[in-house]
Amino acid sequence: MSLNVNELRRLSDLHPKPRAIQFQYGTAGFRTVASILDSTLFRVGVLAALRSKRLDGKTIGVMVTASHNPEADNGVKLVDPRGEMLENAWESHATALANAPNTPALIEAVEHLVKVAKIDLNKPSRVVYARDTRPSGASLVRALEDGLKAIGAETRDAGVTTTPVLHYLVRAINTKGTKDEYGPDSEEGYVAKLTAAFKKLIAGKAAIPLLVVDCANGVGALALQKFIPALGNSITLHSVNDDISTAGALNNACGADFVKTQQKLPASLESLLHPGQRGCSFDGDADRLMYFYLDERGRFRMLDGDKIASLVAAFIVELVKSAGLEDKIKVGVVQTAYANGASTKYLSERLPVKCVPTGVKHLHHAAEHYDVGVYFEANGHGTVLFSPETQQALREHQPAIPAQLTALTHLLNLNDLINQTVGDAVSDMLLVEVVLAHKSYSGVEWDSLYVDLPNRLVKVKVANRNVFKTEDAERRLISPPTLQAKIDELVRKYEDGRSFVRPSGTEDVVRVYAEARAKSQADDLAFRVAGLVYDEVGGDPGLRPREFL
Ligand code: 16G
Ligand code: MG
């Protein structure tokens, strides 16, 4: 079988690439204003179909979402057969196809890809896709479908759902009927799997206090509507910001990204949360989770991805020990440079901790090296991975005493409760609730595991962020050449000071992170480092003041 060039040409002509725009498959796939993405979606369809052929007809996933970005943006990313992010090498193929200036150039790029990637066009091709609630999603999915059709893929439309459900589906479809079967390959099956595990894990525990859930006016609201009846009276979830029909509401002054970056409660929750009560926020595609509570004086306290990692990792370590498996199963944690220094200190005193560059794919791969790998970004994206050997060890372990059996059963149920393909706000929320129920913790006790160092994140707009190059998991700059030495000199002046600079993978900016003993110092350090960055790239001195804070 060869490429159906006529069909590819005919369909590609329906989705011309806008001129003078360069697309890049970055950490979050392609992401930009929705109105210029039509050709990119078509080409991603072509690419996904070819990737499936390359992998012998295994099902590839495509998710249409722009996560926490404004509603007018959209994006698309590919999911590999085990539910993980697209393999690195194919990111550049994606970029190449997206940037072919016209149909003839696209056909040439596709033929080139078939050759270099050794794609056997006789193989079957299977792709499952989904989108979030963005108004632009439906038409972008049509462009994607044209791309899939151009290569003749068998397709499955998973409809409007969360990013983690799509990742789950990919793994469930590809493992169906094998010894690694991940679960039923439907959204209902996913809800049933997680709910059953949750109920077993909290059986016999004290009733869980009501939890307020901010759905960012996004697709997480739909997911929650399916979970609430399935969870029955095991937990009461009060869903807010679940308006998916009002234009402009998505991610607007709510959601996990708002909570993390503003470090405050969304105004829409102010009258709902009372002192002592905890709540949580999903982001726009429900793969991130932030917790928070109001202290006795009604002050907002945030429990971010680092706090979730600390809570969960410590709990799993305890269970492994209680099950009598501590010699067989080693638990480790993966973080990024954005992890609060206090969390790294807390975790390092208890278990191995590794720091990797930003982006889920880096964390996920590093976590696979542990028997149980807990990874969370401070922004709330994360999960826990049980290695295949660990899962087998759990299934085969013969407990010596009843207490060991109890802990072992909990570990097996956690293995089912956790979506191990990618960060999943709903699954992570249920996981946190399990740990809180087992430890009889309220937000206060959880929060007191360690005290966050005050920190500040700022961004600096630069002409070309590619001149910024980093090493040591993004903690140090190697280019521009003299900047790191200047940052080091500054940082030394601050108590518990730490600061790093990295180019964003999703926006045309450079990000500056700083932390220090006092909030005013963290702000000051961030401002000064941003100033160094600004001077280095030769910005207009008139714009230099606190503008980028
Ligand atoms: C993307 C990443 C997220 C990362 C963020 C950093 C995935 C699925 N998402 O949203 O993990 O924290 O980018 O953005 O990998 P930045 O490079 O602009 O700082
Ligand atoms: Mg997201």
UniProtKB/TrEMBL annotation:
What EC number(s) does its UniProt record assign?
5.4.2.3
Keyword annotations: Carbohydrate metabolism, Isomerase, Magnesium, Metal-binding, Phosphoprotein
- Per the record, what are the reactions this protein catalyses? N-acetyl-alpha-D-glucosamine 1-phosphate = N-acetyl-D-glucosamine 6-phosphate
Where is Mg(2+) annotated to bind?
S67, D283, D285, D287
Question: Where in the numbering of this chain does the Alpha-D-phosphohexomutase alpha/beta/alpha domain appear?
Answer: 59-93, 108-177
Q: Which residues does the entry assign to the active site, renumbered to this chain? A: S67
Coiled-coil ranges from the UniProt annotation:
none
- Per UniProt, residues of the Phosphoacetylglucosamine mutase AMG1 domain are 194-289, 304-441
This protein's record includes keyword Metal-binding: yes
Q: Spell out the SUPFAM superfamilies in the cross-references.
A: Phosphoglucomutase, C-terminal domain, Phosphoglucomutase, first 3 domains
**Binding of substrate: at which residues?**
E377, A378, N379, R502, P503, S504, G505, T506, R511
Q: What does the Swiss-Prot or TrEMBL cofactor note state?
A: Binds 1 Mg(2+) ion per subunit.
Needs which cofactor? Mg(2+)
GO terms under biological process = carbohydrate metabolic process; UDP-N-acetylglucosamine biosynthetic process
List the pathway annotation: Nucleotide-sugar biosynthesis; UDP-N-acetyl-alpha-D-glucosamine biosynthesis; N-acetyl-alpha-D-glucosamine 1-phosphate from alpha-D-glucosamine 6-phosphate (route I): step 2/2
InterPro entries in UniProt? A-D-PHexomutase_a/b/a-I (IPR005844), A-D-PHexomutase_a/b/a-I/II/III (IPR016055), A-D-PHexomutase_C (IPR005843), A-D-PHexomutase_C_sf (IPR036900), A-D-PHexomutase_CS (IPR016066), AMG1_II (IPR049023), AMG1_III (IPR049022), PAGM (IPR016657)
The GO terms this record gives for MF are: magnesium ion binding; phosphoacetylglucosamine mutase activity
* Residues in Alpha-D-phosphohexomutase C-terminal domain copies: 457-530
Family listed? Belongs to the phosphohexose mutase family.
Q: What does this protein do?
A: Catalyzes the conversion of GlcNAc-6-P into GlcNAc-1-P during the synthesis of uridine diphosphate/UDP-GlcNAc, which is a biosynthetic precursor of chitin and also supplies the amino sugars for N-linked oligosaccharides of glycoproteins.
Q: Know the name of this protein?
A: Phosphoacetylglucosamine mutase
Organism of derivation: Thelephora terrestris
